[in-house]
Amino acid sequence: MDVADCTENLPAKAPVIAIEGVHKSYRIGEVVTPVLGGVDLEVYRGDFVVIFGVSGSGKTTLLNLLGAIDTADSGSIRIDGEEFGGSRSRLIEVRRSKIGYIFQFYNLLPTLTARENVEMGLELLDLARAEVERRAIMYLEKVGMKDLADKYPDQLSGGEQQRVAIARALAKEPAIVLADEPTGNLDEHTASGVVQLMKDLNSQTGITFVIATHNKELARVATKVFHITDGRLSG
Fold first, then answer.
1. Distances from the Cα of 87 to the Cαs of 18, 19, 68, 93, 141, in angstroms?
2. Which residues lie closer than 8 Å to 81 by C-beta, 6 or more apart?
3. What tens digit of pLDDT does each residue of 24-82 get?
4. To 5 degrees, how large is the angle CA 15–CA 17–CA 20?
5. DSSP 8-state symbol, 23
6. Which of 3, 139, 191, 227 has the fewest C-beta atoms under 10 angstroms from its C-beta?
């Protein structure tokens, strides 16, 4: 039997994100505003995906659906092989175990040190205390923040705070990291460093990144680029 005969029988590589026909609207009183209109998307493990769109185009809503923060009106969403459509408690578990989040404004707790902020992101996982501490220091080191682990957010620059936020997202060792305008609050030089850091971590860990942004520099390092306009996604 030749190689072609063998590979024909191998299962197709499954996407880590599979979205089909997703619609989402919001209602305020009697007014219904459609946000997403029939979105289809496949993302594979290890991809570094960038989604461009202006404010109000639907990119944050799409991330919220992927992150199990919100639910679609119709259509199918699968994350790491799991269909979104179960109980609320199951959605919470998916969000907790499979998804890391990076925000534009870092969302660090001001009364906790950098190390404690990363540890806090692990507290809801079923991990021994020693493993929580090990991961926190390991991922702070990966983002170049180990020496500042005991500093509080107000003692760190914006770029340093975002590095801590990236460490917090990755320390969960999730299937997917979602980032909503992760460079939007940074100057150009600092933003460039954060872009390269995320790409390097993607390459090192194999964790899938999906980033919603205005920052065109991210297209340079993306494996896939999509544009969202009026609630519709195009490649």
1. 19, 19, 11, 10, 37
2. 14
3. 999 898 899 999 999 999 999 999 999 998 888 899 999 999 998 888 999 999 988 88
4. 100
5. E
6. 3
